[in-house]
Amino acid sequence: MRYGTHDVLRGVTFQARRGEVLALLGPNGAGKTTTIEILEGFRTRSAGRVDVLGDDPAHGGEAWRARLGIVLQSWRDHGKWRVRELLAHLGSYYPDPWDASELIATVGLTEHADRQVRRLSGGQRRRLDVAIGMVGRPELLFLDEPTTGFDPEARREFHDIVLGLSRTGGTTVLLTTHDLAEAEKLADRIVVLDGGRIVADGTAAELADRIAGEDEVAWTLDGRRHVASTRDATRFVRALFAEHGDAVAGLAVRPSSLEDTYLALVRQAEGRA
Ligand SMILES: Nc1ncnc2c1ncn2[C@@H]1O[C@H](COP(=O)(O)OP(=O)(O)OP(=O)(O)O)[C@@H](O)[C@H]1O
């Protein structure tokens, strides 16, 4: 993808398999939204080959679009519509839509079903966006930063919805997020973009193996709290007990997280490692 003389995506090659949750990660401006919008058919690429559900998104017709669900980063305005009305209306465009009330319950908006959209809070509005993306029971669901503004409970419920759609419904999900814990929980595979290029592609475990991150060990000794980073927590803890025995208390080991791996990957890609 090129704007003027500026390449914002270069050599971005990846595949999403049916039924998998694929997370696109990357710093602000990395090219996630551009990639997702090309796949959705919202942006026309400058060059390259793209295949989404067997069609080129640049020429996808109505029947092709009906197989997609789309949650954009910023929402369009449906202010005067009531939640239930809007979902029932949008559902009527599809051959086998979700029942509006069932969908409203699934995204946790039952109490607000008869509210006007403009009276919803930011997080409630975002839940509605997700419901709009799901209403046609899409084969492929695009979610661009879907949980921005969700409270922790809504986030947990949303994660269960996505996992349910993918595991039992066979829906393929492509999502972008800045929440690394979310990616770790949901994604079967992770693609990391930086500066318009792919810098990593694999499962969270595969990415972690490439980076050889450090685990964090914390313990208390003689009333003082200690924290150390180590490549081999088991060996470290064994040595700690060999030296101090029962004097060691409050032991906690935190394995390196996807966040650690991600930050190391991005630093490496940007030559800051
Ligand atoms: N219409 C446009 N014209 C010119 N440049 C653009 C246009 N749209 C996006 N860009 C540039 O393309 C690059 C990628 O933007 P994109 O929105 O895809 O990033 P992103 O990874 O989704 O970022 P964020 O995490 O901030 O949402 C950025 O450098 C942006 O400035």
Automatic annotation (TrEMBL):
Q: Which PANTHER family match?
A: ABC TRANSPORTER ATP-BINDING PROTEIN, ABC TRANSPORTER ATP-BINDING PROTEIN NATA
Keyword annotations: Antibiotic resistance, ATP-binding, Nucleotide-binding, Transport
Give the species this sequence originates from.
Answer: Actinomadura harenae
Ranges where the ABC transporter domain occurs: 1-220
- Do you know which SUPFAM superfamilies this protein is assigned to? P-loop containing nucleoside triphosphate hydrolases (SSF52540)
Superkingdom to which the source organism belongs: Bacteria
GO cellular component terms?
Answer: plasma membrane
Q: Name one GO biological process term.
A: response to antibiotic
Its recorded name reads: ABC transporter ATP-binding protein
Q: SMART domains this protein is in?
A: AAA
* GO molecular function, a single term: ATP hydrolysis activity
